[in-house]
Amino acid sequence: MIESDANLGRCGWCGTDPLYVAYHDQEWGVPEYDPRALWEKLVLDGFQAGLAWITILRKRETLRAAFDGFDPVKVAAYGEADRARLLADPGIIRSRAKIDSAIRGAQIFLEMQDRGEDFSAWLWSFVDGRPIQGARATLADVPAQTPESVAMAKALKARGFNFCGPVIVYAFMQATGMVNDHPRSCFRHEEVRTMGVSRTFAAKA
User: Fold this and answer.
1) Using CA atoms, how far apart are residues 190 and 184, in angstroms rounded to an integer?
2) Disulfide engineering: 10 pairs with which of 5, 96, 107, 133, CB 3.0-4.6 Å?
3) Which of 182, 188, 193 is nearest to 138 (CA)?
4) Spatial contact of 204 and 178, defined as CB atoms under 8 Å apart
């Protein structure tokens, strides 16, 4: 049973929707180091642009099915037939620009891999290889973007990624544990803090 926000001091942004609460309690802020999983989350954050995150959560499994489990090799090979299939799928976000961005993102992911670049290490380099531990008293203290998200967004765009402005990128960093932005009053703040480890990181190229 999910305990109440009052009992746990849970972040208020997740409201009472069971799907959103489970995402907060189990996923948000947990450090993610798997390159493919990080790419999937970046794609999903791109699909969120202009929408509420709960909309993406409700469509996440359908999106995963439509995009072959977000396998970069498969997505990178998508052609016009796949674009038409996706645009006709009512279970996903039917935006040609966002679909094209996902396909191009998979191609860039593979190009980096072919050059021997680790997508995870590259992203984590923007926080020097370990989570930034926020010390926010309340949600009102959480910024919309930071110098790190601005730098990452600029680097992603330079690589050819789209839908990755500094606000979207900061949400991505929060969700994947590069920043622990659970306020100190939230029961997950300390739990997430103990999950962070130092990693070897690549240069910010």
Assistant:
1) 8
2) 5
3) 182
4) no
Q: Residue 5 pairs with which residues in a beta bridge?
A: none
Is-contact 32 119, C-beta < 8 A? no
Residue 98 near residue 163, CB atoms below 8 Å: yes
**Amino acid residing at 204:** K
Q: Helices 18-26 and 53-66, interaxial angle, to 10°?
A: 80
pLDDT tens digit sequence for 50-94: 999 999 999 999 999 999 999 999 999 999 999 999 999 999 999
| Cα–Cα distance measured from residue 49 to residue 204, given in angstroms and rounded to the nearest whole number | 25
Please indicate, yes or no, whether the overall pTM of this predicted structure exceeds 0.85: yes
Q: Confirm if 84 and 53 have CB atoms less than 8 A apart.
A: no
